[in-house]
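Standup notes
- HV: blocked on the assembly model, inputs below
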Amino acid sequence: MKEFNTQQVSELAGMVGKERFSKGQSNRELHLHDISFHQGMLPAGIIWPESTEEVADILAWAYEQNVPVTPWGAGTSTEGNPVPTMGGLVVDMTRMDRVIEIRPQDLQADVQPGVHRLELNRQAGRHGLFFPPDPGADATIGGMIANNASGVQTVKYGATKDYVMRLTVVLPQGRVIHTGCRAPKSSAGFDLTRIFVGSEGTLGIVTEATLKLTGIPSHYLAAIIRFPDLEKASEAVAVLIGAGLGPAALELLPPGLIRLMNNEKGLGLPEVPSLFCEFHGISEGALKETAQLAGKLCEDCGAVSFDYATEEAARKDLWRARHEAWETIHRAHPGKETLIVDAAVPISRYPEMVVFAQKEVDQAQSIGYVFGHAGDGNLHVVMAGDPKNKEEWGRIEAINQAVVEKAIHFGGTCTGEHGVGIGKRKFMAMEHGESYELMKQIKNLIDPKGLMNPGKIF
Amino acid sequence: MDRAVKERLKDIVGQNGFTDSLIDLISYSKDASEFKRRPDAAVWPETTEQVAKILEFADRERIPVVPRGAGTSLAGLTIPERGGLVMDLGRMNRILEVNIVDRLAVVQPGVVYASLDKVLSKEGFFFPPDPASGSVCTLGGNVATNAGGIKGAKYGTTKDYVLALEVVLAGGRILRTGSRCMKSVSGYDLTKLLVGSEGTLGVITEITLKISPKPPLTSTAMALFEDLEDAGRAVSDIMHSGIIPSALEIVDQQTLKAINQNTDLNLPEVEAILVAETDGYTREETEFQLEKILRIFERNKATSVKRAADKSEADALWTARKSAYGVMARINNNLFVEDLAVPMSNVSKMLRIIADLAKKYDLKIPTVGHAGDGNLHPVVSFDGTNADEVKRVEEASAELFQKVLELGGTLTGEHGIGLAKARFMNQEHSDLSMTMMRAIKKVFDPNNILNPGKMALEN
Ligand SMILES: Cc1cc2nc3c(=O)[nH]c(=O)nc-3n(C[C@H](O)[C@H](O)[C@H](O)COP(=O)(O)OP(=O)(O)OC[C@H]3O[C@@H](n4cnc5c(N)ncnc54)[C@H](O)[C@@H]3O)c2cc1C
Ligand SMILES: Cc1cc2nc3c(=O)[nH]c(=O)nc-3n(C[C@H](O)[C@H](O)[C@H](O)COP(=O)(O)OP(=O)(O)OC[C@H]3O[C@@H](n4cnc5c(N)ncnc54)[C@H](O)[C@@H]3O)c2cc1C
């Protein structure tokens, strides 16, 4: 659906007011791309609702008019998740950006979906609380729920799904459903909440959420551990996790990526395979003890150094650099697009996966950086190339295919955190077999016309 | 059930895997609840293939099938409400893999919680939900009910630990959901949909569980509160303090009275007792956390705070909590362990409401619970032969659950809906939610043969 007719334009504008509907070219182009290379179809218009009722009206209208609808958060996805593939209407949720209430005594917050995670954490922080999932981008909570996002702290604190207690979701036809409850646990009926978490906007639009919060840890300790090669570094990951030290972050970085970070941010870090890790604890003493044990284990794995970054500023620099890794890579290769492998495997297979992925990149002589949230077995390969250059891009696609196939063979998954979007659809049948059919049936059940974020997951 | 059907079932599972003897059917007519209904036959499958064949056949013949673990359900989840076939998974009881590096265990559904625990504890690991029925209940039952326990505040419930499932659907389709990794966002989360589905969506034939390292040390303390509200505030303050106790249990005044009347423990009959436990790898760690909790107890006007110096003192502090059920069972001839959960800050309010209801309906409702995750177990003891009392019990529970829902809570924190709470489902879940659950049920089980009549999934 390429353009709205005048009747449709006036109906849409009528639902929310003129200033919150646009069919201007620049707004449409701003809602055509996430950070990936995936191509969509220019949406016919953008609408910015401010309430559940407005979203319900919009979806009822879209159903009646057979207009495809794509929800939009901050647009920071990496697999084309919010990219409209059939034009139609983009529902931009960023005007619903209020933290409705924080109930510190219950460790909960009620939020609208358009609130950004850093803003939520700023407000929760006043109560000594935080919402732990921390993707590199300042994503919206709605986008995080829809993608079930995670981040560097997930190895200790879990992913978004572990923090969603209640949802208000507007389904196709404008039906409003409330799932979950405010009690910390429940066994009452099917867990509908978790069907919506990670559904990438294909089942409905989240308009409100109750999130679990957790107490900010009183003590931190960050460390960088350096290794002679990538294999030893990734072996240490499996050992550290196996030993039950409970790191709050455990990231693997290759020399190439550290070089880019140094160039861009002047960090002056040695350009060798490294683990960035962090521990959170209740006392300085306990942390030191844990770190010493970790140091010893790493030494046994062949680590050449173990340095603490106890200074708060240094610690923040380190994590900022890690969070911006993708942007750094992108900036270092101007004019190229990136394709991101997001496989995850059981931790015992992690070293093999890392070595395999690095070998694939080397053999194909592609531009590629192998790193990832190592502590939870999540492997990223960020590869840069030109999608129009069939040969160059073909090599990158082949690496993607090979790494994912291997991950699935190891009992892993094609996407640990970024979601299926457009890019990972081709792996779904291979990964899920019969279960994929069930997912389709659930999609059909809730969205029989296939209007919600079409072209994603399925 | 006619002979031909029985013969076909025997073909699938063998003579030894089938029974229709009265004595077996009588045992399968009950679980740990008050409900009762006899099935027509029972089978003990030993492989996924047998389960698939049975479900294919049963679906074709429209025979109701009720999966069953150890039958310890407290809410009538395993009652064969429509007769038919009970499928006892007890013979699929092998632990297939324990993988310490990958932090996972792969088990068949009939493995008893305690058997897995024994194997894991040798490695310094555990599967945390730890239901009080752990010595008998099965992991299949735990998954199907989303079981929880005393460690919930810190370690969560079963759903937090199920990574992957093998499930057979009505009709015999075999699904594999999830993966062996710690995180995945690949499509809809069918695994979590199956956790807590009470055998209504499919029969679980293999479970991949995340396991946790088990901190070897614990420290324990107990505090008395003259005022319930102070105890409630202490619970919130503790959970907010950044340290998370491995257990935080509450015992109310009615329970203390019941214990005193039936034992010589001589507990102080205050409004509430809190028992807290912290865990860790070093004594310093557990004590450091306990210190914080003790300070919070004191700040919230605990009248007496006791801290255990060693294991036997710790056991003594747990006596009040752990002797509760046994004592209550002796009060009257029927016993109903209720199960509800509310937001943490409402624990004391909820206890007050329960006490008021007991007075209003002239009942005894001593209550204990997992305060750290807002999960309370009011224990209703009554005389089942006294029609008037039975009626009062029913009215009280209807009012109780209305109040629970008003406080943002849920009908069940861990025991499930089954038959006992089916009538309240629509109060917690809107018409649209119910429609959706029923539609999902239809996707998985179009002919409604799996555990029919539970969870208000019909009509
Ligand atoms: C530098 C960088 C680092 C990143 N690091 C990580 C990381 O470490 N871990 C990680 O998991 N991700 C990471 N990401 C990916 C991305 O930030 C996350 O997936 C994030 O959750 C997307 O949120 P968003 O607000 O940008 O949503 P969008 O990209 O706008 O949308 C995401 C999906 O959610 C849907 N959606 C949005 N709002 C709603 C709603 N209210 N209701 C229903 N559906 C909705 C959209 O249709 C789309 O399918 C990173 C991205 C960047 C750019
Ligand atoms: C003394 C006592 C204490 C208890 N304490 C606790 C507690 O602390 N926490 C708690 O959560 N519960 C508790 N319970 C309740 C009960 O033990 C749990 O619900 C337990 O999870 C049930 O396991 P089971 O093997 O007995 O399952 P069953 O009672 O046999 O079955 C329970 C449900 O699971 C289904 N089911 C069983 N196996 C399968 C399978 N393989 N596939 C699909 N569906 C299946 C059944 O159809 C049924 O709906 C307690 C019960 C008693 C009697």
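- HV (later): unblocked. The pocket of flavin-adenine dinucleotide (ligand 2) is lined by residues B 31-32, 66-74, 77-78, 89, 109, 131-133, 137-138, 140-142, 144-145, 147-149, 198-199, 203-204, 414-415, 451 (CB under 6 Å). Residues 6-94 of chain A form a domain with the Uridine Diphospho-n-acetylenolpyruvylglucosamine Reductase; domain 2 fold (CATH 3.30.43.10).
- Next: hand off to the docking folks.
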